[in-house]
Amino acid sequence: MPERAAIKAEAARLRGLFEAAGAMPVEASILQPAEVLLDLYGEDIRGRAYVTSDVLRGEQMLRPDFTVPVVQMHMAHGAEPARYTYAGEVFRRQEDDPERASEYIQVGYEIFERDAPAASDAEVFALFHQMLAPLGLRAATGDIGILMAAVDGLQTSDRRKAALRRHIWRPRRFRALIDRFSGRATVPESRAALLAADDPMAGLAPVIGLRSKAEIAARIKVLREDAVTPPISANEVALIDAVLGVRETSGYALERLRDIAVDLPAISGAVDRLAGRLEALAARGVDVEALDFEASYGRTQMEYYDGFVFGFYAASRPELPPVASGGRYDALTRQLGQGREIPAVGGVIRPGLVVALGGAS
């Protein structure tokens, strides 16, 4: 990896460009409270966070990113609209890939803007696109909101829809749930026996786990209610698969999604938002006809993304993580806003990768 001094100089240059775009520089403590924040990150980040215990402060962690602390700061003290930038180290375990750094610098740009989300999405992406243009990176885009809308439109129970929404960021688990809820998957013998028993709590061995008998009984009740819920139809499963299968340049993707929306009208609003975003991107000079769009993109990233998502990759170096990534996270502001919310979108660049790929400060 490049020398640290060169990376820090590149970080300062990138942050300067964000400041020139109207962002206010902010800081975030390296040590963050873990109790609240760990629930907001995806499964991948939670498993890679450095967590420690403090007698006075409780569980703490080294910050794995800046977005969540910046949202906390904005929701507590920020004015509207607002643009922020930051630069500093983040920390993530890399046990599965020891070649990757567990400590590296991020530079970011975040917009909190209530009135024009499509314009804000386009502003962030176009700014990153322009700043990274000399590196010749491949841009990838997606929209988590389209899949969320598709799930919400299913003709099934609210409990099943909530389970599917919760596992959107875990593709294998999501697929397993679709197969189970549609009747494609065989019910395990142990569960079938449990549900068939007149009194499944009879003869229960002493409880030694974390769940009480009351919690176990409540869980059995939920399983029984689910067992008599009609299966998701084959047609609806096919429509979900059609959404997940959209992988085209943006213009063709939009056309394909509009076709799907004829049979799955629940996604119409999200598809209209995609159309508005593409118009806003084109107005900022982005060649949207050549811009890749994948409906599944972003499903293994941060769980707080709930709309537009993007990343920039070095096609000649597929072993590298994304040089930059980001997206929309409106729901996160609701979770941290204590009754308040504001649409928000942002992204981060890794200056170490910019330098490694030939960028210079």
From TrEMBL:
Keyword set includes Glycosyltransferase: yes
SUPFAM superfamilies (UniProt xref): Class II aaRS and biotin synthetases (SSF55681)
InterPro entries assigned: aa-tRNA-synth_II (IPR006195), aa-tRNA-synth_II/BPL/LPL (IPR045864), HisRS-like_core (IPR041715), HisRS/HisZ (IPR004516)
Complex and partners: Homodimer.
GO terms under cellular component: cytoplasm
Keywords: Glycosyltransferase, Transferase
Span of domain Aminoacyl-transfer RNA synthetases class-II family profile: 14-351
Protein name as it appears in the record: Histidine--tRNA ligase
Highest taxon above the source species: Bacteria
Residues that coordinate or bind L-histidine: D65, F66, T67, R92, Q106, E110, R299, Y304, Y305
A molecular function (GO) term: glycosyltransferase activity
Gene Ontology BP, a term: histidyl-tRNA aminoacylation
Gene behind this protein: hisZ
One Pfam family here: tRNA-synt_His
NCBIfam families (UniProt xref): PRK12295.1-5
